[in-house]
Amino acid sequence: MDNALARPVGHDFLWPHLLEVPYFRALLRAVEARFYQDLPIVPPVLDLGSGDGSFAAQAFARPLDVGLDPWRQPLRESRARGAHRLLVLAQGARLPFANAAFNTIISNSVLEHIPDLDLVLAECYRVLRTGGHLLFSAPSDHFTDWLIGRKLFGERYARFFNRISRHYHCEGAQAWQARLTRAGLVLERAWYYFSPRALRALELGHYLGLPNLLYKWLAGRWVPFPSRHNPLLRALEAWLRPIYNEPLPATGAYIFCVARKP
Predict the structure, then answer these.
(1) Domains of the chain, CATH where assigned
(2) Could you write out the three-class secondary structure of the chain?
(3) CA angle centred on 30, ends 25 and 32, rounded to 5°
(4) Are the beta carbons of 222 and 29 closer than 8 angstroms?
(5) What values do phi and psi take at 65, rounded to 5?
(6) Bridge partners (DSSP) listed for residue 104
(7) C-alpha span between 194 and 214 (Å, rounded)
(8) Which one of 177, 186, 198, 256 has the minimum C-beta count within 10 Å?
């Protein structure tokens, strides 16, 4: 691993995320950011589905080589953050790079939003160097198991929640292994994360975060008064801190995968 990319051991990812994005997204991204401190990340690195650059800016100590996204507006926001040396507007199924261009591809909570995923994985295989890694996170096959709304309203709510989350794929390790094998990649390891309590906090955030969405439209940022002295943010941090510090569960609402090109 290139240690120069990692934040220091013990770095707190929760507060910086709370100052920038709605709380439910902050919790999820803060938990995920810790994983990259102990993963085989070797430059050059492609951030597939880099969005507005907020995750890369928070998760890594220095800019990644390339950020790629299919939408112009997030790339405009990303440019101001400086989390990538180069930003590229393109589709994941048609990566504008030469064969074996990268040692590492990261794709954080992106692949679940892509309907025709096999084409994207085939492209990841093509642009990875031999021995290179694809590191990605996604909702798991247990994503809807502990939703409050599912207990109240059943499967219709589970389908609704996946639809508003724009999820096409919620799969476990076996399903991901099959997909990766078809693309020529090897699943080296995978683990669940995000407990039932964490999932319910995320679920509530989709509704409680509506004022953040309105503020984003009006002011161009998610969080009003982004300060550690903000009483609301302090209350959210106190609520979320124990969830952020939870050990990995045996079964979780999300899954993280480490794949390699043999």
Answers:
(1) 3-260 (3.40.50.150)
(2) CCHHHECCCCCCCHHHHHCCCCHHHHHHHHHHHHHHHHCCCCCCEEEECCCCCHHHHHHECCCEEEEEECCHHHHHHHHHHCCEEEEEECCCCCCCCCCCCEEEEEEECCHHHCCCHHHHHHHHHHHEEEEEEEEEEEECCCCCCCCHHHHHHCHHHHHHHHHHCCCCCCCCHHHHHHHHHHHCCEEEEEEEECCHHHHHHHHHHHHHCHHHHHHHHHHCCCCCCCCCCCHHHHHHHHHHHHHHCCCCCCCCCEEEEEEECC
(3) 100
(4) no
(5) -70, -50
(6) 45, 133
(7) 27
(8) 186
Q: Per-residue confidence at 1, pLDDT binned at 50, 70, 90?
A: very low
Mind listing the pLDDT tens digit for each residue in 160-203? 999 999 999 999 999 999 999 999 999 999 999 999 999 999 99
- Phi, psi values for residue 108, rounded to 5°: -95, 110
> Phi then psi for 13, rounded to 5 degrees?
-90, -15
The token pair that represents 240 in the structure block:
């979320």
